[in-house]
Specification:
Blueprint (H helix, E strand, L loop, with lengths): L3 E6 L3 H12 L4 E4 L14 H8 L4 E2 L3 H4 L6 E2 L21 H11 L11 H14 L3 E2 L5 H12 L5 E2 L1 E2 L22 H11 L3 E3 L3 E10 L2 E10 L5 E11 L5 H8 L2 H4 L11 E3 L4 E7 L14 E3 L3 H4 L1 E7 L4 H7 E2 L8 H9 L4 E8 L5 E5 L5 E4 L4 H21 L3 E5 L2 E2 L26 E2 L1 E2 L15 H17 L5
Parallel strand pairs: 1-2, 1-11, 2-8, 4-21, 10-22, 11-23
Antiparallel strand pairs: 3-4, 5-7, 6-14, 9-10, 10-11, 12-18, 13-17, 13-20, 14-15, 15-17, 16-20, 18-19
């Protein structure tokens, strides 16, 4: 009757962890991944090759039609086995307690006792995942990081080493292009490969068309998926459980194409699919220094100043250089936001080895939406509000001051960026504001789980991957105790 106990769409933080937990419990698992399967020998650190193989093509928010706002945000995500964890900066943060309180206010996220979810509820999961992914304090600061830390020190601010999914054999470069040493312990290394050894099946380069849903006496029930495999052949697989963990941009598209709104007769919960998009909008403030720093040879995020996160809504992390001149040239602007071209850009690129930067991320609003247009193509709406702009201006001012005090002779900005897209299928017990419940199962469709970043109810003030792993852990544990109980 079933081909698999569970079919998992997506192999990033959420998909990888669920696949691992279920496979290790003896369940038959299929992993469907849109991108290719590349191992450490394929990670050459050649910038163009990495962007082509491992990243989604450039995608931007578009706001003018719905919101009358012309600011755009570049959305950078991984499209490969391991998802964004293959090309991320490996920073591992636990969720701040104030963010979890906001989750309860937003959508009534609860623990298994029906009480508001707290940091204490997540800590055992964090500890387990940190052991599995070898999280450690990253203290091997390079010259650029130490320099910027001194700039903050002159402002009375103390830089802290980040926690990172990075083993001790890290040679400190190439994170954005795939790690050739297996030092970065993302989903690929920590969860996907062990799942395959445990018997899971992997379908890379495959495009999911829809979740198969049947109407039964118990209501709507997920029964499997339809997808196109790497050869373009239509495939239909059946399973007891379907896990959609394709990320906050792709997951709502899959659910919308599966006609969940229509099948659920436009329930309050189904109308939330795709809504409440948050970007954790980021920007980089670069400084050109007198001496050569060779900043691209370091771990891209080694330190942070967290003082402003709760109080003013922004986090400062460094030392950032984009790890390659092509990516740098694409995003760098002057302080007024104008792109650098011609002689100005050439001069700066000639001094690329002297550039180091501070990555700013802000607590923006869950006010965006993933929609499908009349042709079925995705459109990503995300307004940048006046409040967002105010936070960005303030954060840039702080970063500029730190860089100048550190000795930067020139300062540059970047376009708006997002690598931490969240929301769009939020979790919670309030069905009028969420798509899945507190153990990440759909309110409308039994046996359908969404445990990825799209489930985060309101934007985290820190890098979200560790919390996405923790949410996936909640979902996997619930499946094994209930949906997949023998």
């Amino acid at each position: 009757m079933y081909d698999y106990h569970a079919i998992i769409v997506g192999s990033g933080a959420a998909g990888g962890l669920v696949a691992y937990r279920l496979s290790m419990a003896g369940k038959k698992v299929a992993i469907i991944e849109r991108g290719g399967y590349y191992g450490t020998n394929d990670f050459t650190r050649f910038e163009l090759d990495a962007y082509r193989k491992l990243w989604w093509e450039p995608r931007w928010t578009s706001n003018s039609e719905l919101f009358g706002d012309m600011d755009e945000i570049s959305l950078g995500m991984g499209r490969c086995v391991g998802g964004s964890t293959t090309i991320f900066t490996a920073v591992a943060h636990r969720a701040p307690a104030w963010n979890l309180k906001e989750w309860y206010r937003e959508t009534k996220v609860t623990n298994e006792r029906g009480e508001p979810l707290t940091l204490e509820d997540l800590e055992p999961r964090y500890e387990r995942i940190e052991r599995e992914t070898r999280v450690r304090r990253y203290t091997e600061w390079d010259a650029g990081t130490r320099l910027i830390a001194k700039g903050f020190e002159k402002m009375g601010l103390k830089a802290e080493a980040v926690n990172a999914y990075v083993d001790v054999n890290c040679d400190q470069s190439g994170c954005l292009f795939g790690c050739p040493t297996e030092a970065k312990r993302g989903s690929l290394v920590s969860y996907i490969v062990p799942s395959l050894y445990a018997g899971a099946d992997l379908f890379p380069n495959s495009t999911v068309r829809e979740v198969l849903v049947e109407r039964t006496q118990e209501g709507l029930v997920a029964k499997g998926i339809k997808f196109l495999d790497s050869e373009g052949r239509a495939v239909e697989l059946k399973s007891k459980v379907v896990v959609v963990a394709a990320g906050a941009l792709e997951t709502p598209q899959i659910l919308l194409r599966s006609k969940l709104r229509e099948l659920s007769e436009y329930s309050d919960s189904s109308l939330q699919i795709g809504k409440n998009l948050a970007a954790n909008t980021g920007t980089i403030v670069f400084g050109r220094f007198r001496d050569t720093l060779r900043n691209w040879l370091i771990h891209p995020i080694s330190a942070e100043v967290p003082d402003f996160a709760e109080r003013e809504g922004f986090l400062l992390q460094f030392s950032e250089s984009m790890e390659g001149p092509l990516g740098f040239a694409e995003v760098v602007t002057d302080p007024e936001g104008r792109p650098l071209v011609g002689g100005k850009l050439k001069s700066l690129l000639m001094n690329y080895g002297k550039v180091a930067g501070i990555f700013v991320t802000i607590h923006d609003s869950n006010n965006g939406e993933v929609r499908l247009d009349s042709n079925g193509n995705p459109v990503f709406y995300k307004p940048v509000t006046r409040g967002d702009r105010r936070i960005i201006r303030r954060a840039r001012e702080v970063a500029e001051e730190a860089l100048r005090l550190a000795g930067a002779e020139e300062v540059f900005h970047s376009i708006l960026l997002s690598h931490h897209v969240q929301g769009t299928c939020r979790m919670g017990e309030d069905t009028s504001k969420s798509v899945v419940n507190s153990h990440l199962e759909s309110h409308d469709v039994k046996n359908l789980f969404v445990p990825d970043g799209s489930a985060i109810p309101s934007v985290l003030d820190v890098n979200p991957s560790l919390t996405i792993y923790a949410l996936a852990d909640i979902a996997a544990e619930y499946m094994l105790r209930n949906n997949l109980k023998e």
